[in-house]
Amino acid sequence: MTLTASRPTAVEPGQSQIKRPFRPLRLVLHVFLGLVALGWLLPLLLAVYASLRPYVETAELGYFSLPRTLTLDYYSQAWSQADLPKYYLNTLIIVVPGVILTLLMASFTAFAIARLRIPGRRVLLVVFTAGNLLPPQVLITPLYTLYTLIPLPWWLSDSLSLYDSYLGLILIHVAFQFGFCVFVLANFMRTIPEEISEAAMVDGAGVWRRYWQLTLPLCRPALAALSTLQFTWMYNDFLWALVLMSSGDKLPVTSALNNLRGQFFTDYNLLAAGSLLVALPTLIVFQLLHKQFVSGLTLGSTKG
């Protein structure tokens, strides 16, 4: 007996397609989603529009008026007045080691929780998860005091303490992002079949080899998604740099926008141009990793 697969019949030119019935709730959902998207895009579009117009024109006609002239001069002024290249470099010195250290330590800890028979590992995971709920503002005073008391050699800090040093900011980012990454990676590693790890153990693979050569490559989508999130969160940090830094030339780029504010007058069109330049690297990173980011977010939803 032979089986023949039935092919889908093509729609004839005169044959009418089946129309979906009108659903009022779907229309309400689309209107709601459109309003939410507009609420996100409208401030960004207004900032772009304001950055292209002279302040004299917006002061005379208002921000919602039609433009007389459009120019890119504010972008060059913001680039030079705020000294953005130096602050971009400061941000990279803080963010790149912070993201690498966070993901490396969190992945190893998640591997130990998800794959090794450690007593109390569930309690440990609950502690990491609960740490994410702690508001950082309540720790400002004790952390400030602690940072001033921890000594560092001169080649790590000009102030000879953890306060006002790049290492201090890196450590605070690693500490606050560590629990979230452990929670995500531990749950992701549990979806990997244990038979793979057991087969490696039979072949004589140790703990480090099972972590580095077997489990970590399989976690690439989750690591890419976390890399995008961690880069964005650390890059956008404004609080810890102001609290734990005193030298103006060490501040990250988000704090450099203060250089565009005058003592008695602030050109908000110039500030809008500077804000867009500061936000540009996060958009570039997201575009580079958006495929891995989306696949990492939707990977668990396709598993049966």
From TrEMBL:
Top-level taxon in the UniProt lineage: Bacteria
Transmembrane segment boundaries: 27-52, 87-111, 123-146, 166-188, 268-289
Domain ABC transmembrane type-1: 88-289
Keyword terms: Cell membrane, Membrane, Sugar transport, Transmembrane, Transmembrane helix, Transport
Subcellular location as annotated: Cell membrane
Pfam families named in the record: BPD_transp_1 (PF00528)
Main localization category: membrane
Protein topology in the membrane: Multi-pass membrane protein
Keyword Transmembrane helix part of the UniProt annotation: yes
Entry-linked InterPro entries: MetI-like, MetI-like_sf
UniProt record similarity statement: Belongs to the binding-protein-dependent transport system permease family.
PANTHER family: ABC TRANSPORTER PERMEASE PROTEIN MG189-RELATED-RELATED
Protein name: Multiple sugar transport system permease protein
Organism per entry: Nonomuraea africana
